[in-house]
């Protein structure tokens, strides 16, 4: 297929088109992704997450500039950059994208995944496959928030940075639980606003109390993204973590975790599709629902019955 050849040659329009197909749940994507997959596995994947408006996109943009100076190519995906807090995030992202539009070594794209059939992580993994196959050295995934979905996405990255700001104050306590395992590097952005040292002390305490399975102790970097302060140090810390996972031989382990997640997502999706087409027509579903609602049946027995009917059929 022509589009596959073009993606492999890093043609930006073909990459963009393939990612649109993914976004739209197109039936063509599966066969394209199968062809692209053997060409993947070379990119370094960096996850960037944090609360709305923390300055993630600004940081990613500045990091991309530094990385480009090292002659490495980059693909950037911003997942659902729709937060109402930062005021026109999408517009801002567009402007940033235009700034890099003359550089063929960088591909930037925002991706809407809400309502995606296979969920957020499926869409993100597929986009990573496309960028990886196109030969990008570094892939950056930006996601808003620190909830379960984001944690899952970040799990697919080799290195993850969590961006916080001093303005959030005590909010740190509420997000604490989720972030300790996923943050390989903590960033306190907007260090020009408020007392970042207080947050730094809080974070340090948390890091000390928490012992990670992989033995890594996350460093903290203070930045002012809009003034290019702390960016080089941040990139250095990112590379240190990468060195660490290489030295500790964690790369294959991480690749396996990622593949497992991806595989389970796909099995769920495919199984549901097959069951629906073979033994769960809308009419049969309606019959089950009527019985469940009337308490003549229950969802537990119904699910077992549906699977049993499917197995008998196939
Ligand atoms: N004062 C100050 N403002 C900053 C800094 N970094 C980013 N900003 C501003 O904060 C706003 C939000 O920045 P973004 O980079 O869009 O933040 P984001 O985390 O990507 O936002 P969402 O994707 O919407 O969650 C913008 O107006 C930036 O110019 C900083 O270090 N200091
Ligand atoms: Mg953003």
Note down, in words, how this protein is organized.
With 314 residues, this protein is of the alpha/beta class. The chain has helices at 2-8, 12-23, 29-36, 56-69, 89-99, 119-133, 148-155, 172-182, 196-209, 231-247, 251-279, 282-293, 299-313, and strands spanning 44-50, 74-79, 106-111, 138-144, 159-164, 185-188, 220-222. The chain has 13 helices and seven strands. A seven-stranded parallel sheet has the order 3-2-4-1-5-6-7, with helices on both faces. Helix 9 links the parallel strand 6 (185-188) and strand 7. Helix 1 crosses helix 2 (12-23). The protein binds guanosine-5'-triphosphate (GTP) and magnesium ion.
Bound small molecules, deduplicated: guanosine-5'-triphosphate, magnesium ion
Spatial separation of the terminal alpha carbons: 32 Å
Range of helix content: 55-70%
Q: What is the overall number of helices?
A: 13
Give the oligomer, counting copies of the same chain as homo and different chains as hetero: single chain
Radius of gyration in whole Å, from Cα? 22 Å
Q: How confident overall, as mean pLDDT?
A: 87
Q: Give the overall form.
A: globular
Structural class by helix and strand composition = alpha/beta
Biggest β-sheet, characterized? 7 strands, parallel
Strand order of the largest sheet: 3-2-4-1-5-6-7
**Per DSSP, what share of the residues sits in E-state strands of 2 or more residues?**
5-15%
Tally of DSSP β-strands: 7
């Amino acid at each position: 297929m022509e589009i596959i050849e073009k993606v492999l040659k890093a043609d930006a329009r073909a990459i963009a088109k393939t990612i649109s197909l993914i976004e739209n749940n197109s039936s063509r994507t599966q066969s394209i992704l199968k062809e692209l997959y053997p060409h993947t596995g070379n990119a370094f994947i960096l996850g960037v997450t944090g609360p709305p408006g923390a300055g993630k996109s600004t940081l990613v943009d500045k990091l991309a500039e530094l990385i480009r100076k090292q002659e490495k190519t980059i693909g950037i995906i911003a997942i659902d950059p729709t937060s109402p807090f930062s005021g026109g995030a999408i517009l801002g992202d567009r402007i940033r994208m235009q700034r890099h539009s003359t550089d063929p070594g960088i591909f930037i794209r925002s991706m809407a995944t809400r309502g995606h059939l296979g969920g957020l992580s499926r869409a993100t993994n597929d986009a990573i496959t496309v960028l990886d196959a196109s030969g990008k050295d570094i892939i950056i995934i930006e996601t808003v928030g620190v909830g379960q979905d984001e944690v899952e996405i970040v799990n697919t990255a080799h290195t993850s940075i969590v961006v916080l700001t001093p303005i959030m104050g005590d909010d740190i306590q509420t997000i604490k639980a989720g972030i300790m395992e996923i943050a390989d590097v903590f960033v306190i952005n907007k260090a020009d606003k408020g007392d970042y040292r207080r947050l730094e002390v809080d974070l340090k305490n948390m890091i000390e109390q928490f012992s990670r399975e992989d033995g890594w102790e996350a460093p903290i970097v203070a930045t002012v993204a809009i003034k290019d302060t702390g960016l080089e140090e941040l990139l250095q810390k990112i590379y240190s973590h990468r060195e660490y996972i290489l030295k500790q031989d964690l790369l294959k382990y991480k690749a396996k975790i990622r593949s497992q997640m991806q595989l389970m997502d796909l099995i769920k999706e495919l199984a549901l599709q097959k069951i629906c087409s073979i033994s769960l027509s809308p009419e049969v579903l309606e019959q089950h629902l009527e019985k469940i609602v009337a308490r003549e049946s229950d969802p537990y027995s119904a699910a077992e019955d549906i699977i049993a009917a499917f197995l008998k059929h196939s």
